[in-house]
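Honest question from a wet-lab person: if I give you the sequences of every part of a complex, can you actually get the arrangement of the whole thing, not just the pieces? Trying it with mine:
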Amino acid sequence: MALIDKVLPGYVATLWCQDDATPTPLTDAQLSTWASQVETIIGTSAGGTGTAGIQVPVEAIPSFGADDASAAYSVAGARTGAKITTQNQVTSLTITAAWNPADTAQLLIRDDGYSGTIIRTYVIAVYDGTDTVAYAFNARVGGLQWDMSPSAEGKFIFTIHPVGGNSYGWSNN
Amino acid sequence: MTQQNPVDYATAIQYQLADICDPYPTYANFNRNYATESTFVTWQLRNIHQPVYTGQTQNNKGIDTPVFQISLFSQSFNDALNLSNTVLQELHGYSGQFGGESGFFIAKADVVWLYNSYDNELGLNQIFLDCTIYVPT
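Yes, you can. This is the full assembly:
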């Protein structure tokens, strides 16, 4: 299928994760493979098959990608210094969700955070009604917080920390 | 992508509202329908605007967010309220194909139930709703 060729609003992005209590995360190669891999984690509402995944109900998808990092050095005799881009880490995502204590995905993430060792494949899917572009990565969950401020709905805040330097991949249907 | 065509918008809105409000008739504007119809729906489109990001490149544009007002008329206040609920349930939060096969994709429809009123002269209850649709183009 063709890639999406239009400007999309930010909220067409959705977050999905594997739905097993003890999941087998995708390999580095599979993270970039749509057929039978990434598509099974994305639900039908975003153009996947949803056979092995569940939607995480987030308020907004934070910026994702790689952290910025570079080594700066100066060159004797040169008018300016120079920078070399270093191998950057995959960005951690701090996510806020409206807290629903019975939501299956939130319970999974709560258990992952309690465990601290479970590595799960997450997928951010962008869908225009026909085609899907997916960013998949493997991550652990940390920093669980519940914010029950009485001035708003209860919030569940957690951080997804990607694993390893290459553990993300792009794919499309 | 090119700017969406107001003709396409109008066609799609008419199709979608007629589909939602069936069996009550849907018209593009108020006319003498009240003489023959006890309950009916009209709509009016406004605010077609796609933000332009640059002054140099004409096709560098963002999301179009046109608004159409939905006016529900009925001799029975109960029918009008029920019809407004039908519109809310079907349209608010809707994402997907808008206007049938010949329509277009909308990322979101956002409905605001504005207010109700009564026209003594026409003998019709009125309920007004605004619907903003978000169209990636």
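Two things worth pointing out. The radius of gyration of chain A is 18 Å. The first strand of chain A starts at residue 13 and ends at 18.
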